[in-house]
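@here heads up, posting the sequence + SMILES for the zinc ion run so it's all in one place. Ping me if the SMILES looks off, I pulled it from an old spreadsheet.
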Amino acid sequence: MKYFILVPDGCSDWAIESLGGKTPLETADISNINALAKVSETGLVRTVPVGMEPGSDAANLSLLGYNPAECLTGRAPLEAAAMGIEMREDETAIRTNFVTLDGEIIVDHSAGELENEDAEILIKFIDEKLGSEDLRFYPGVSYRCLLIAKNAGELKAIPPHDILGKNFAEYFPQGDEIYRDLMRRSHELLKNHPLNIERMKNGKPAANSVWFWGQGKKMSLFPHKEKYGVKGCMVTAVNLLKGIAYYAGFSCPDIPGATGTIHTNYEGKAQAAIEAFKNGEDFVFLHVEAPDECSHCGDLDGKIKSMEYIDKKIFAAVYDYLKNCGEPFRILVLPDHKTPLEIRTHTDEPIPFILFNSGKDLVADETKFFSENGVNENNFFESGSALAEYFFRK
Ligand SMILES: [Zn+2]
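bot reply: prediction finished. Complex structure tokens:
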């Protein structure tokens, strides 16, 4: 048996006036996925436990059969794993953004999507000046760096992208004074750094402070294969999902040109999934960040287009392979959470799914679509792990 889960991150949405009251999913031409929806079981699933932040970390863990309320310690330990940093029990990983402060205001959570080379120079400088045996700074991807702190004090922090345009001093992290102190000192060190002077000369935002958030201790997940008996592969561009793959025990191929944006390498991802199946993996979890990223940017056209690319360039290719592979197979298509364009952030509402089982001969139902209103709302799963249990074992 082959198992395929396709996750267009954040593709589910609310009705949009300019689309005549339809959602982006109802508008996009996703004819391949919708053809399969007609002969699939459809329904709704709650992927984020009530009371938890609707982050991609919690939602995707849930889809894989884990309970995020029990196992998720923070996003930074997942990113640390993806970056190849081995954490010890007494260490805490802390996401360290390079941000742009202007006077009292935080104006950019990414210092203009800071280039990798600049981030590397600046984080090395910060590590030299502020690091110690117990505090080590690491470069990541773009503005997303990491602090590994030994025997760290308590930290309660707000993600910088949630406070843009606000007086940052009001949102400084709570807990141990050391974090506020490090942030203040980083600003003093960075504001006159030659690289920042050069950036400003070129009209780029200065990376003139670090901002801490997303902290957590080393995680512990049971190996996915132990519970579900399938050998898994993760296909993704983003470190968060790569970190989940590390902890769950999945293979995780590098996909050249996979970016996490609408300009990602769709064909390359489909090919990686097919290769994984050919090489004996039983299960592929294929994640595409593009619809979520478009939602955060308020890009309606991009969100619709990214779904069409996913349908034509990924879904159609992998489905074609599975249909002809000579083995029974199951396919689950669903987002991890909704990211409504109107609010440009995630919600914890239940999300639609379609579940195809090649062993079940369902009569085609023309009223079924992969969309918020096209699924059977009476087929409701209380958690992602309940759906995973059903998908892998029933
Ligand atoms: Zn997500």
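MO: Residues 2-72+220-393 form a domain with the Alkaline Phosphatase, subunit A fold (CATH 3.40.720.10).
MO: One more: The chain has two domains: 2-72+220-393, 82-217.
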